[in-house]
Amino acid sequence: MLAAYVSGLNSCNFCHGNHKMIAEIHGVDPNLFESLIDSPGDSGIDEKWLPLLTYVRKLTESPSSVTDLDARVVFDAGFSEDALFDAISVCALFNFMNRMVEGCGVLFNDVDLLATKKLHEKGEKSATPYQDFVQVSTSSSKK
Predict the structure, then answer these.
(1) Do residues 35 and 44 touch, judged by C-beta distance below 8 A?
(2) CA distance 95 to 116
(3) How many domains does the structure of the chain reveal?
(4) What range defines the domain where residue 68 resides?
(5) Which of 14, 81, 117, 141 is the most buried (most CB within 10 A)?
(6) How is residue 31 annotated by DSSP?
């Protein structure tokens, strides 16, 4: 969800579309994302998430303005230091990847998204979904 959120904030259609699809496979409401980008408070997401989303948005849009007070609000909402670090890591990674994807001109299309969705759905109940995904997508590309 955070990967899709950050990518949506950055208008990276490829990453937003792919990670939104993965979040949907894992039960996140597909209608949630557009409202999250526009107005998190009106999106219907559990209010506990709002301080973390506010933090991630600020870190994405104006990183030098993040303060200890921003972290304190996240902690007061019940998130641990590890959870905040994980969110910061996802945020940083997707800010980086969104710029790589956009800078390299990677395009988003529904045909590739559907094929990727099918691969992810096959591995949804697997104990090793990422290994399965890489093995299937690697063997498909060799054909």
Answers:
(1) yes
(2) 22
(3) 2
(4) 2-108
(5) 14
(6) T
Token pair of 62, please?
A: 């104006």
Give the whole-angstrom CA distance, residue 39 versus residue 35: 6
Same domain for 81 and 133? no
Report the Cα 102 to chain-centroid distance in Å.
16
Tokens of 2: 């955070």
**pLDDT tens-digit series, residues 100-139:** 999 998 887 777 777 777 776 766 666 776 566 556 555 5
Alpha helices in the chain (DSSP H): 2-9, 13-25, 32-38, 50-61, 68-76, 81-104, 110-122, 129-141
What's the residue count for the chain?
143
